[in-house]
Write a structure and sequence with these properties.
single chain, Immunoglobulin-like, four-stranded antiparallel β-sheet
């Protein structure tokens, strides 16, 4: 009797099970951000787009519509965390800045980016910066923070006063460099140009190029 009852309940579960799979959920406002800030660049660019989905239209079709890619009510700022100083980025067309979008699934024009000149923000190495994005249609802003790597500098050999490496077959050739406190991995690349001359005639025999990589 118990076995029959269990089998009956299992059959009812199978009959009442819904096998439909809905792979597209309700549309949400999801910002998508790409960015890289560097002390060595004259301007900083942030790409801000929005995720998109439609139950009846292919994503490949939507991706070709700029109105589906970009916000029209967004404000993008970089904030220096240490003192709260805020710097607004300007929305520009990357194509007019010399940065055309590669051909692919997404609309190439316009290629909207958010820009600020490095001189206008006075970036400092090893400082924390927060990217803040606000939208008029949303009460809350979204934020993400990172620490900006400081400049690295070669100390030996001195790149200003010495351009000859002191190679010595009886001793090591040493390289020293000053690095950012926030850097954990360092790669040093050295391009070497050298000439070979005949010891008898001092005539140039050949010129060579080489490369040296040092990792730490």
């Amino acid at each position: 009797m118990k076995f029959t009852l269990s089998l009956l309940l299992f059959s009812l579960l199978i009959v009442s099970c819904d096998n439909e799979l809905d792979i597209i959920e309700a549309r949400k406002d999801i910002p998508v951000v790409y960015g890289f800030i560097s002390l060595s660049d004259t301007a900083q660019y942030i790409r801000l787009e929005k995720a998109f989905v439609d139950e009846t239209t292919s994503a490949l079709v939507i991706a070709q519509d700029p109105d589906s890619l970009y916000y029209d009510d967004a404000t993008v700022e970089l904030v220096r965390t240490s003192n709260g100083a805020s710097f607004a980025l300007e929305m520009v067309d990357g194509k007019l800045e010399g940065y055309s979008r590669e051909e692919g699934a997404f609309a190439q024009s316009p290629n909207y980016l958010y820009k600020i000149r490095t001189a206008d923000i006075a970036l400092e190495g090893d400082e924390e910066y927060t990217l803040r994005i606000s939208r008029e249609s949303k009460a809350e802003s979204i934020e993400a923070s990172t620490v900006l790597l400081g400049q690295s500098r070669i100390r030996r050999p001195d790149p200003v006063t010495a351009n000859i490496l002191d190679f010595d077959y009886t001793d090591r050739t040493r390289f020293f460099w000053q690095v950012s406190e926030s850097a954990a991995t360092h790669n040093l690349y050295v391009d070497i140009n050298y000439r070979e001359r005949s010891p008898e005639t001092n005539l140039l025999m050949k010129m060579q190029k080489g490369a040296l990589k040092i990792s730490r």
